[in-house]
């Protein structure tokens, strides 16, 4: 089980408290699709993904980004119990969505960059370190039920 | 993975705007890398890695200079970094996985200091460029 220090929990909640989940989620997903275009393979039914502008403006991308980051919020509420929290989602991503877990790591890294752009200097090295740990643990939990 | 004309312009443009801050960004990149990925410290047992370390600053300056050099010779990164590539293969032998970690931290530094510069398109180009640099530096490993 992952251990979270008091400082880490503070760094997580103080950042999360200031995050606009809809905007941040939309931006993170859009950047994932732009920076790593092969990730578009999962979104054939999203319509126009033909350019960065199209991707950023795509309402399905925005909506799905919001959904993904909202789910991330569940992780933050259940830091002591991530594997259980994500058990069903993990099965879904394996059995129905067939998503390579590497994509969770890619999205996690992109999220960090979006947070850095948003928070600037306040996204200190300690803050980044804590959040890199968090996205890593979330990715691991999401991959846990893969078979 | 090939850098398009647009990628090259995006990268050159970014480094031109970063200008004199490159050295400072290099140091901060290392600081963040050591904090977020403690295993990377294993390559620097001979360094003082404490806050404000002169050695980290000095090394950050070197790393930044190499990135600037690569950006300035973006049509031939392999040529520009050939000696550095030899050094990494023969002497330093930093595991290839670590270049991605350094790249991530450099992106975070650029994002935190220049959010407006790091548009999605520039982000994509810079990520590709950093991958290309990592590939060149590990090209002669075996």
UniProtKB/TrEMBL annotation, chain A:
<dbReference type="InterPro" id="IPR050056">
    <property type="entry name" value="Hemoglobin_oxygen_transport"/>
</dbReference>
<dbReference type="GO" id="GO:0004601">
    <property type="term" value="F:peroxidase activity"/>
</dbReference>
<dbReference type="GO" id="GO:0031838">
    <property type="term" value="C:haptoglobin-hemoglobin complex"/>
</dbReference>
<dbReference type="GO" id="GO:0019825">
    <property type="term" value="F:oxygen binding"/>
</dbReference>
<comment type="subunit">
    <text>Heterotetramer of two alpha chains and two beta chains.</text>
</comment>
<comment type="function">
    <text>Involved in oxygen transport from the lung to the various peripheral tissues.</text>
</comment>
<keyword id="KW-0561">Oxygen transport</keyword>
<keyword id="KW-0479">Metal-binding</keyword>
<dbReference type="Pfam" id="PF00042">
    <property type="entry name" value="Globin"/>
</dbReference>
<dbReference type="GO" id="GO:0046872">
    <property type="term" value="F:metal ion binding"/>
</dbReference>
<comment type="similarity">
    <text>Belongs to the globin family.</text>
</comment>
<dbReference type="InterPro" id="IPR012292">
    <property type="entry name" value="Globin/Proto"/>
</dbReference>
<dbReference type="GO" id="GO:0042744">
    <property type="term" value="P:hydrogen peroxide catabolic process"/>
</dbReference>
<dbReference type="GO" id="GO:0005344">
    <property type="term" value="F:oxygen carrier activity"/>
</dbReference>
<dbReference type="InterPro" id="IPR002337">
    <property type="entry name" value="Hemoglobin_b"/>
</dbReference>
<keyword id="KW-0408">Iron</keyword>
<dbReference type="GO" id="GO:0072562">
    <property type="term" value="C:blood microparticle"/>
</dbReference>
<dbReference type="GO" id="GO:0005833">
    <property type="term" value="C:hemoglobin complex"/>
</dbReference>
<dbReference type="GO" id="GO:0043177">
    <property type="term" value="F:organic acid binding"/>
</dbReference>
<keyword id="KW-0813">Transport</keyword>
<feature type="domain" description="Globin">
    <location>
        <begin position="3"/>
        <end position="147"/>
    </location>
</feature>
<dbReference type="InterPro" id="IPR009050">
    <property type="entry name" value="Globin-like_sf"/>
</dbReference>
TrEMBL record, chain B:
<dbReference type="InterPro" id="IPR002338">
    <property type="entry name" value="Hemoglobin_a-typ"/>
</dbReference>
<dbReference type="InterPro" id="IPR050056">
    <property type="entry name" value="Hemoglobin_oxygen_transport"/>
</dbReference>
<dbReference type="InterPro" id="IPR000971">
    <property type="entry name" value="Globin"/>
</dbReference>
<dbReference type="Pfam" id="PF00042">
    <property type="entry name" value="Globin"/>
</dbReference>
<protein>
    <submittedName>
        <fullName>HBA protein</fullName>
    </submittedName>
</protein>
<keyword id="KW-0561">Oxygen transport</keyword>
<dbReference type="GO" id="GO:0072562">
    <property type="term" value="C:blood microparticle"/>
</dbReference>
<dbReference type="GO" id="GO:0005833">
    <property type="term" value="C:hemoglobin complex"/>
</dbReference>
<comment type="similarity">
    <text>Belongs to the globin family.</text>
</comment>
<dbReference type="GO" id="GO:0042744">
    <property type="term" value="P:hydrogen peroxide catabolic process"/>
</dbReference>
<keyword id="KW-0479">Metal-binding</keyword>
<dbReference type="GO" id="GO:0019825">
    <property type="term" value="F:oxygen binding"/>
</dbReference>
<dbReference type="GO" id="GO:0043177">
    <property type="term" value="F:organic acid binding"/>
</dbReference>
<dbReference type="InterPro" id="IPR009050">
    <property type="entry name" value="Globin-like_sf"/>
</dbReference>
<feature type="domain" description="Globin">
    <location>
        <begin position="2"/>
        <end position="142"/>
    </location>
</feature>
<dbReference type="GO" id="GO:0005344">
    <property type="term" value="F:oxygen carrier activity"/>
</dbReference>
<dbReference type="GO" id="GO:0031838">
    <property type="term" value="C:haptoglobin-hemoglobin complex"/>
</dbReference>
<keyword id="KW-0813">Transport</keyword>
<keyword id="KW-0408">Iron</keyword>
<dbReference type="InterPro" id="IPR002339">
    <property type="entry name" value="Hemoglobin_pi"/>
</dbReference>
<comment type="function">
    <text>Involved in oxygen transport from the lung to the various peripheral tissues.</text>
</comment>
<dbReference type="GO" id="GO:0004601">
    <property type="term" value="F:peroxidase activity"/>
</dbReference>
């Amino acid at each position: 089980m992952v251990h979270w220090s008091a400082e880490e929990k503070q760094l997580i909640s103080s950042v999360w408290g200031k995050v606009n989940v809809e905007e941040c989620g939309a931006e993170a997903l859009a950047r994932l699709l732009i920076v790593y275009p092969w990730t578009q393979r999962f979104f054939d039914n999203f319509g126009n993904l033909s350019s960065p502008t199209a991707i950023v403006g795509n309402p399905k991308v925005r909506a799905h980004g919001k959904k993904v980051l909202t789910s991330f919020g569940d992780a933050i509420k259940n830091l002591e119990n991530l594997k259980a929290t994500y058990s069903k989602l993990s099965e879904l991503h394996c059995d129905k969505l067939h998503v390579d877990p590497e994509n969770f790591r890619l999205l996690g890294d992109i999220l960090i960059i979006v947070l850095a752009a948003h928070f600037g200097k306040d996204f200190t090295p300690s803050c980044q370190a804590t959040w890199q740990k968090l996205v890593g643990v979330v990715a691991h939990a999401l991959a846990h039920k893969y078979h | 993975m090939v850098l398009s004309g647009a990628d090259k312009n995006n990268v050159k443009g970014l480094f031109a705007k970063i200008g004199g801050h490159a050295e400072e960004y290099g140091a901060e990149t290392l600081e963040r890398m050591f904090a977020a990925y403690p295993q990377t410290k294993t390559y620097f047992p001979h360094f003082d890695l404490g806050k404000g370390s002169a050695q980290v600053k000095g090394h950050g300056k070197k790393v930044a200079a190499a990135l600037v050099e690569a950006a300035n010779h973006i049509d031939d990164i392999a040529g520009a970094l050939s000696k550095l590539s030899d050094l990494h293969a023969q002497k330093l032998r930093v595991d290839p996985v670590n270049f991605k970690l350094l790249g991530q931290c450099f992106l975070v530094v650029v994002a935190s200091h220049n959010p407006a510069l790091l548009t999605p398109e520039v982000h994509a180009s810079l990520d590709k460029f950093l991958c290309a640099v990592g590939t060149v530096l590990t090209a002669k490993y075996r």
